[in-house]
Amino acid sequence: MDDFSKITYLNQSQAKAIDEDLMGPVGFSVDQLMELAGLSVAQALALEFPVETLPISPSESSSSPSSSSSSSSSSSSSSDPLAPRRTRVLVLAGPGNNGGDGLVAARHLTHFGYDVCVCYPKPTSRPLYDGLVTQLRHLDVPVLSWGLGKESSLGESTAASAAASTSLRLSPKGTFEGVADVIIDALFGFGFSGPLRAPFDEIVHLLTPGSTPPLLSVDVPSGWPVDGPPSVSESNFESNVGFNSESNPGSNRIHPAVLVSLTAPKACARGFREGAHYLGGRFVPNGLREKYGLVLPPYPDAFAQCVRLWPLSPGVGSTDHDPADQVSEAAKAVQVDQMRITYELGGLEDEAFKGRDPMGIWSEWFTQAVQSKACREPNAICLASCDLDVPPSSVSVSSPITATPSVRMVLLKGFDARGFSVFTNLQSRKGKELLSRRRGSFVAFWEPLQRQVRVEGFVEPLTLDENDAYFKTRPRESQIGAWSSDQSQAIEGGRLALEEKYRLMESKFGGREVGIGGEGREKNGSGDEKENDNDNNNNNERKKNNDSEKKKNRDNNGNDNDPKKHDDHNQDKQQVPRPTHW
């Protein structure tokens, strides 16, 4: 499908007719459709909000979803701000099929590794829904009622009502902030009409912008008119919700960060650009497509249960729109200007740093980042260099000479009393700039811990022995890759040429050890045989000058033994000594 703008959008009556056909002539049962829909919702959430381990904020113990003791980890709290926790998902499940989709998604997300909690204000007393709740209970997923901390009155004792014996607890501000990392809005689908009644009017009101974590809406954002976007029918939305914009500024409508349409997008989603838009429900047969003239996009692969409609992937569903306009629309869609969090983990007090060695503080913070499993690569740093080739003292504001800084993410490979170590190819842009300027800086940022450290200092190469020792630790494929590619250089012939060079180097080395390489070796292209020749030359040179310590020292500092020349093609290591600034 070349143009996603041709996709069919259904009004409410069309959506109901297709649903009846799916559960009638086509032969689906409601639980089958619910399973497929819930799985697609879970998959879309996993694509947009990958599961990860995060630290517990000190404020989270006061806003955990459950108000009673539970075997689920979602109700656990810790006084340790670095104690790990999983990404938390709160599912708001309504009384109908949309709520059932949410219950199914909750089960799948739990199996995906998320910390899931369900708020089920009005449980549906039917075997299908009772079964879904029972499944969640066996996964230790809390199923809570809505009472803002008050005791719940649930009527007859079903599996659903028995599970929902406690109420969802909001933050001290009376909002969803801090309750979860992502909220699923599975309250009402395309079949809903009429004003929202308690407690759903209150819930939807609390989902308005500025008071919630990212929101994923299932099929139709709750409170939106199905047949058209709320932007053209604000008064209808306000009457449905039961709030007016004069007494409740900003309550006009909810703004989902992700919308997952099911079967086919609904009319209210036409032109949706506020966030990511997915289509799920991979169950529409060709006969229904022909009967209703449905134009639906293909799914990306055999395993996908959802397909992204917006933002478009490069080359997928592209149109002839101006690229600049598409970039602007994409920026608006993800609401960059609204991206912010509250930094509440710890703080910086002068007393905590007074008289302390900066390297000691670094060691403490880095160890905490590693042990808390706050991120997969706590040693990832953003390394900066500059291409200016003249001493900084000769540069002024009025100077015609301009410097171009460059930054890139690299992996820190060590630190000690001398400073911090990274490896790089000395013929790469960063390698040349760092050796030329002899100064560098980097930032380490551990976002889940809300901490960053900035380091500035001088740069110098490590010894040849240190370079060799590191190179031997690299996987063999990476060692051969270092011989095969010239960093920061254009690849003549594209990827095929690069892969061919890799195969050539792989054949040259055979089963032999891959050395670190050097300028002469690479130019001759003779693998490690030339490396052995160089080693013999160096040994001979040392033997010749063995009788003169002065001569020996001079030879050891000459070109044959200079690490800068010896390692100028493949991996070398830059050392930033003790930083001058923090």
Give the spatial strand order of the biggest sheet.
5-4-3-6-7-8-9-10
> Termini distance?
53 Å
Roughly what percent helix?
Answer: 25-40%
Number of strands: 18
Going by helix content, strand content and strand pairing, the class is alpha/beta
Which shape, going by the Cα principal axes? globular
The largest β sheet comes out as:
8 strands, mixed
What is the rounded Rg? 31 Å
The overall average pLDDT, rounded, is: 75
Total of DSSP H or I helical runs spanning 4+ residues? 19
Q: Into which percentage range does the β-strand content fall?
A: 15-25%
Characterization of this structure:
This protein is of the alpha/beta class. It is built from 19 helices and 18 strands. The protein has an 8-stranded mixed beta sheet. A 4-stranded antiparallel beta sheet has the order 12-11-15-16, covered by helices on one side. It has a 4-stranded antiparallel beta sheet with strand order 13-14-18-17, sandwiched between helices.
In short:
The chain has 582 residues and is an alpha/beta fold. The chain contains 19 helices and 18 strands. The chain has an 8-stranded mixed beta sheet with strand order 5-4-3-6-7-8-9-10. A 4-stranded antiparallel beta sheet has the order 12-11-15-16, with helices on one face. Strands 13-14-18-17 form a 4-stranded antiparallel beta sheet, sandwiched between helices.
